[in-house]
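INTERNAL TRANSFER SHEET
From: sequence group
To: structure group
Subject: NADPH-dependent oxidoreductase

Please process the attached sequence and return the structure record in the designated field. Keep the field labels unchanged so the import script can parse them.
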Amino acid sequence: MSNPIHASNRLELEELHLAKDCLNQTIEILTSHETVRGFLPKPLPEGALQAITASARSAPTSSNLQAYSIIIVKNEQRKNRLATLSGNQNFIREAPVFLVFCADINRLKYVTAKQGYTFAAETLEMFLLSAVDASLALQNALVAAESLGLACVPVGSIRNDPKAVADELKLPEGVFAVAGLAIGFEREGVRRGVKPRLPEQLTVHDEIYSTEDRDQYLNEYDQTMISRKTYDGRRVSLAGEPEKHGVDYGWCEHTARRCTRPETIAVSASLRENLKQTLEELGFPIR
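Return from structure group:
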């Protein structure tokens, strides 16, 4: 794997040479994605937001149920409160627009009752369907925004306190904030170069799932992330456990520590720990 620190896209980073007919503006935008966590105090260009939401609404949706909703947040006070609820991340405050993508079965329940039927789709499948619908819409919005020269950062920490977020956004029963998307013009100096991903051999499988040479590729990726100092100052500490010495702190160690207990993924022990119970309380009975 190539390791230029400030590669502008994944093709350059991994020294991938696509056939000329397979390289276009869309591929260039997708492979150039970099999460940006710093925005200028500058509004979006006129018409940009509608172009972004139209693109989001054009995403695939299961059975055309369109089981999602998008909340547009531009009010400074509301953005501030959502930033606080989402791990106190300042880039949410800085971004001129913060979109919240929600799984939404409230509308489906309403339509079912309106047509004189009983809604009986309170299942894990329906939650997954609506969460996937929301996620596909978010990805379309991100690509659309980046195609307009804007920068974005998806925000999973909107799930840190689902009830408080639901109260802030006046979400009715059956609507759950899956992820946010901060959009704006990036501040100078916030880019660090496209981040290396796991080798293709680990995540893309030919016909059947394969674990062949898994350790080799994991070790290679670890060394790439260590050489880039990706986790310097970002080590996950494990409460009650002694610090390991002599262990290379790369992707494997960082990821393993985050997965030692569910709440570690959300940084704080109090966050997302009882998400299933919270989902049910918010109108997503899962059976």
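Handover comment: The mean pLDDT is 90. Residues 124-147 form the longest helix (24 residues).
Transfer complete.
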